[in-house]
Amino acid sequence: MMANDPRPLTTEPLALDLLNTEWIDDGGRQDLLADIRGLRVWLRTAGLGSTPVDAAALEHLREARAAIRAVLEDPGTQARADVNAVLARGHVVDRLGPAGPESEVVVGDPSWRAAHLAVRDLLALLRDHPGRLRACAGDGCILHFLDTSRSGRRQWCSMTVCGNRAKARRHYARTRT
Prior knowledge:
- The protein is an alpha+beta fold.
- It contains six helices and six strands; from the N terminus they run H-E-E-H-H-H-E-E-H-E-E-H.
- Strand 5 (133-135) and strand 6 (144-146) form a beta hairpin.
Protein backbone atom coordinates (compact mmCIF):
# COMPACT_ATOMS: atom_id res chain seq x y z
CA MET A 1 0.00 0.00 0.00
CA MET A 2 1.31 3.43 -0.94
CA ALA A 3 1.72 5.94 1.88
CA ASN A 4 0.02 9.30 1.64
CA ASP A 5 2.05 12.49 1.41
CA PRO A 6 2.01 13.96 4.95
CA ARG A 7 3.25 17.44 4.00
CA PRO A 8 1.05 20.47 4.72
CA LEU A 9 1.81 22.14 1.35
CA THR A 10 2.04 20.07 -1.81
CA THR A 11 0.77 22.31 -4.60
CA GLU A 12 3.89 24.29 -5.41
CA PRO A 13 6.15 24.09 -8.48
CA LEU A 14 8.71 21.28 -8.45
CA ALA A 15 11.64 23.24 -6.94
CA LEU A 16 9.52 24.56 -4.07
CA ASP A 17 7.82 21.20 -3.66
CA LEU A 18 11.23 19.63 -3.11
CA LEU A 19 12.15 22.39 -0.66
CA ASN A 20 8.90 21.77 1.21
CA THR A 21 9.85 18.16 1.92
CA GLU A 22 11.05 19.65 5.22
CA TRP A 23 8.46 21.29 7.44
CA ILE A 24 7.66 22.08 11.06
CA ASP A 25 4.61 20.71 12.86
CA ASP A 26 3.61 20.09 16.46
CA GLY A 27 6.08 17.21 16.58
CA GLY A 28 8.99 19.41 15.49
CA ARG A 29 10.98 19.38 12.27
CA GLN A 30 9.85 16.74 9.77
CA ASP A 31 11.72 15.48 6.71
CA LEU A 32 9.94 13.45 4.06
CA LEU A 33 13.34 12.62 2.55
CA ALA A 34 14.59 11.01 5.75
CA ASP A 35 14.36 7.57 4.13
CA ILE A 36 13.60 5.62 0.97
CA ARG A 37 9.92 5.31 1.88
CA GLY A 38 9.57 9.10 1.90
CA LEU A 39 11.53 9.34 -1.35
CA ARG A 40 9.03 6.97 -2.96
CA VAL A 41 6.13 9.12 -1.72
CA TRP A 42 7.71 12.34 -3.01
CA LEU A 43 8.62 10.93 -6.42
CA ARG A 44 5.08 9.64 -6.86
CA THR A 45 3.51 12.93 -5.72
CA ALA A 46 5.86 14.96 -7.95
CA GLY A 47 5.16 12.75 -10.98
CA LEU A 48 8.79 11.65 -11.26
CA GLY A 49 8.34 7.92 -11.32
CA SER A 50 11.16 7.52 -13.84
CA THR A 51 13.75 8.33 -11.13
CA PRO A 52 15.26 5.32 -9.37
CA VAL A 53 14.13 4.83 -5.78
CA ASP A 54 17.50 4.25 -4.16
CA ALA A 55 19.99 5.74 -1.72
CA ALA A 56 21.83 7.63 -4.49
CA ALA A 57 18.68 9.41 -5.71
CA LEU A 58 17.78 10.24 -2.10
CA GLU A 59 21.21 11.79 -1.49
CA HIS A 60 21.08 13.75 -4.75
CA LEU A 61 17.66 15.16 -3.88
CA ARG A 62 18.87 16.21 -0.44
CA GLU A 63 21.81 17.96 -2.13
CA ALA A 64 19.49 19.72 -4.58
CA ARG A 65 17.13 20.71 -1.75
CA ALA A 66 20.01 22.26 0.20
CA ALA A 67 21.15 24.15 -2.91
CA ILE A 68 17.64 25.48 -3.58
CA ARG A 69 17.25 26.56 0.06
CA ALA A 70 20.63 28.31 -0.03
CA VAL A 71 19.77 30.25 -3.19
CA LEU A 72 16.45 31.42 -1.76
CA GLU A 73 17.73 32.27 1.71
CA ASP A 74 21.32 33.45 1.10
CA PRO A 75 22.07 33.70 -2.63
CA GLY A 76 25.83 34.03 -2.42
CA THR A 77 28.65 32.55 -4.42
CA GLN A 78 28.54 29.16 -2.67
CA ALA A 79 24.78 28.82 -3.19
CA ARG A 80 25.18 29.49 -6.91
CA ALA A 81 28.05 26.99 -7.09
CA ASP A 82 25.92 24.33 -5.39
CA VAL A 83 23.04 24.88 -7.84
CA ASN A 84 25.43 24.83 -10.78
CA ALA A 85 26.96 21.56 -9.53
CA VAL A 86 23.54 19.89 -9.71
CA LEU A 87 22.84 21.45 -13.12
CA ALA A 88 26.15 20.10 -14.42
CA ARG A 89 24.74 16.56 -14.02
CA GLY A 90 22.53 16.99 -17.10
CA HIS A 91 21.68 19.11 -20.09
CA VAL A 92 18.83 19.90 -22.45
CA VAL A 93 18.76 18.68 -26.03
CA ASP A 94 16.62 20.78 -28.37
CA ARG A 95 15.53 19.47 -31.75
CA LEU A 96 12.86 19.88 -34.38
CA GLY A 97 10.53 16.91 -34.20
CA PRO A 98 7.56 15.89 -36.35
CA ALA A 99 5.18 18.01 -34.26
CA GLY A 100 7.55 20.99 -33.95
CA PRO A 101 10.22 22.02 -31.46
CA GLU A 102 11.07 19.46 -28.77
CA SER A 103 13.29 19.59 -25.71
CA GLU A 104 14.57 16.65 -23.73
CA VAL A 105 16.46 16.69 -20.44
CA VAL A 106 19.39 14.28 -20.62
CA VAL A 107 20.99 13.18 -17.36
CA GLY A 108 23.95 10.76 -17.46
CA ASP A 109 23.16 9.09 -14.14
CA PRO A 110 19.38 8.42 -13.75
CA SER A 111 19.66 8.88 -9.98
CA TRP A 112 20.29 12.61 -10.65
CA ARG A 113 17.17 13.08 -12.81
CA ALA A 114 14.73 14.36 -10.16
CA ALA A 115 17.37 16.58 -8.52
CA HIS A 116 18.36 18.05 -11.88
CA LEU A 117 14.74 18.71 -12.88
CA ALA A 118 14.00 20.43 -9.56
CA VAL A 119 17.01 22.75 -9.86
CA ARG A 120 16.13 23.52 -13.52
CA ASP A 121 12.66 24.41 -12.27
CA LEU A 122 14.22 26.80 -9.75
CA LEU A 123 15.99 28.61 -12.60
CA ALA A 124 12.71 28.93 -14.50
CA LEU A 125 10.98 30.31 -11.40
CA LEU A 126 13.77 32.83 -10.80
CA ARG A 127 13.61 33.89 -14.45
CA ASP A 128 9.82 33.98 -14.86
CA HIS A 129 8.69 35.06 -11.38
CA PRO A 130 11.41 37.20 -9.78
CA GLY A 131 10.22 38.54 -6.46
CA ARG A 132 7.36 36.05 -6.20
CA LEU A 133 9.22 33.22 -4.44
CA ARG A 134 8.51 33.64 -0.76
CA ALA A 135 9.17 32.08 2.60
CA CYS A 136 6.08 31.79 4.79
CA ALA A 137 5.81 34.61 7.33
CA GLY A 138 4.27 32.27 9.91
CA ASP A 139 6.16 31.92 13.19
CA GLY A 140 8.33 28.82 12.99
CA CYS A 141 7.19 27.89 9.48
CA ILE A 142 9.92 26.98 6.98
CA LEU A 143 7.73 26.39 3.92
CA HIS A 144 8.14 28.34 0.67
CA PHE A 145 5.61 29.19 -2.02
CA LEU A 146 5.16 30.95 -5.34
CA ASP A 147 2.98 34.01 -4.77
CA THR A 148 0.40 33.87 -7.54
CA SER A 149 -1.94 36.39 -5.93
CA ARG A 150 -2.96 39.34 -8.07
CA SER A 151 -1.52 41.87 -5.62
CA GLY A 152 1.68 39.91 -5.02
CA ARG A 153 1.32 40.36 -1.26
CA ARG A 154 0.69 36.81 -0.07
CA GLN A 155 2.43 36.19 3.26
CA TRP A 156 1.58 32.67 4.35
CA CYS A 157 1.97 29.19 2.95
CA SER A 158 -1.62 28.53 3.94
CA MET A 159 -4.30 30.89 5.14
CA THR A 160 -5.96 28.02 7.00
CA VAL A 161 -2.85 27.26 9.04
CA CYS A 162 -0.24 30.01 9.30
CA GLY A 163 -2.57 32.86 8.29
CA ASN A 164 -5.20 31.97 10.86
CA ARG A 165 -2.57 31.56 13.58
CA ALA A 166 -1.17 35.03 12.83
CA LYS A 167 -4.64 36.58 12.84
CA ALA A 168 -5.53 34.82 16.09
CA ARG A 169 -2.31 36.12 17.72
CA ARG A 170 -3.07 39.69 16.59
CA HIS A 171 -6.65 39.43 17.84
CA TYR A 172 -5.50 38.04 21.17
CA ALA A 173 -2.93 40.85 21.52
CA ARG A 174 -5.60 43.50 20.76
CA THR A 175 -8.04 42.07 23.28
CA ARG A 176 -5.41 41.71 26.01
CA THR A 177 -4.29 45.37 25.92
